[in-house]
Specification:
Shape of chain A: elongated
Strand content of chain A: 15-25%
Strand order of the largest sheet of chain A: 3-2-4-1-5
Distance between the termini of chain A: 53 Å
Radius of gyration of chain A: 20 Å
Oligomer: homodimer
Helix content of chain A: 25-40%
Largest sheet of chain A: 5 strands, parallel
Number of helices of chain A: 10
Order of helices and strands of chain A: EHHEHEHHEHEHEHEHEEHE
Number of strands of chain A: 10
Largest interface: A-B, 57 and 58 residues
Structural class of chain A: alpha/beta
């Protein structure tokens, strides 16, 4: 009898767990001893916040590498094969969504281990919901290219995609490049294309603004500097 | 000073609210008097489960039509313009995601009303996380066509999209057509294409299975009949 792998969403910043995690997610995470985590330090900080039942030092924390080999995956999932429940945790948000961890989940399916996703915060989902754009049809692209020419080209391709499929298009940028991204967007896109920026989601400093590419040109975008943000775009 | 519109996720079925909603979501929903809802009956049932502070009969519930006019939207958001906080609620899951409600959010942005998305269950997000497929790049297509030929064509187009962009592709089907959809998938797709079916998410009967299109042919698919399900596909 194998154990279950629980996919445990992490908080998106420093907020009380009850702010963004259901009691069921908290209760299950508190009870687990075996963990597969992206980075041990933030994992321990999260588990401490949750006030887990077992002393942190006695937990079995195994770190998954960015591109795990099948040998890595066998070791990571050994406790689950032996009948123990295991938690999968990344540094922020939902494992495997705009975040690593999917390879561990795929390996669990292959090994016949039951996979149970728990409810918690996802910046992608919250940004889309808050954008008021098309949530019946949307695409998430992860990071766009960094070099200015390639970025402009990618932004225009995404915009063309949005127009062709009448769908919302989401992407992310590392916080210290947010301002460069916003400048590129306001210049590259059709003036009427809608852009929503959602920064610091679930945190007290949460900021969600939606306007046309043209209107973004007239706004102070410096205030988005160095804040984790999602970009949601829809062409008209 | 305008109010705030809170986007309140509804439960995905009959479970205790603490199972799928953070305490913050429950506390905010309990305190609201003004609501914009998809359907009054399930809205009242949800608010009763939450044990809201105000007697249900005294709540201001306004129903949003499937395609609200700008006059409808003005009426729906009147309490927020007058300074009251308002909750937006659909019949299941997150407002605006695989669900109506986006037009209300868009109108709130236009009226300068603050939009705050609350954490809760989304079948799309949970299915993607549990699929172990590519959550760094994915697309959600809503419903595919119903007629067999058009459905097969759409499935193959989505599969080609997945192969070209190396991304996960998600879609839904009305529960009573799940079995027909699974049969179509197992016949239409490349035998090696991966398909994950996630049914009854967050409920005690939750079932999540992932295998190749070829392997689905040998499985009893009848047990997915009439259960709300998400389909996640990835071509190899």
């Amino acid at each position: 009898m194998t154990g279950t792998i629980y996919l445990v969403p992490n908080l998106l910043g420093t907020v009380p767990p009850s702010h963004a995690l259901p009691q069921r997610t908290i209760d299950i995470a508190r009870s687990l001893i075996h963990w597969v985590v992206e980075t041990p330090k933030p994992a321990r900080a999260f588990l401490k916040t949750l006030d887990v039942a077992t002393p942190i030092a006695n937990l079995d924390l195994r770190t998954f590498p960015p591109a795990p080999t099948s040998k890595n995956l066998t070791t990571l999932l050994a406790p689950a094969r032996e009948g123990h429940d295991v938690g999968l945790l990344t540094d922020a948000g939902c494992p495997g969504i705009a975040d690593p961890g999917a390879a561990v989940v795929a390996a669990a399916h292959s090994a016949g281990i039951r996979v149970v996703p728990l409810v918690g915060p996802s910046a992608v989902l919250l940004a889309l919901m808050a954008s008021g754009m098309n949530g019946q049809s949307f695409a998430f692209h992860g990071y766009l290219p960094v070099k200015p020419d390639a970025r402009t080209q990618a932004l225009r391709a995404v915009e063309a995609d949005s127009r062709a499929h009448r769908r919302a298009e989401l992407f992310i940028e590392t916080p210290y490049r947010n301002v460069a991204m916003l400048e590129a967007i306001s210049q590259a896109l059709n003036p009427a294309t809608l852009l929503c920026v959602a920064a610091d989601l679930t945190l007290p400093s949460e900021t969600i603004e939606r306007r046309t590419a043209a209107a973004w040109r007239d706004h102070d975008i410096g205030r988005f500097a160095k804040r984790p943000a999602l970009f949601v775009m829809q062409a008209c």
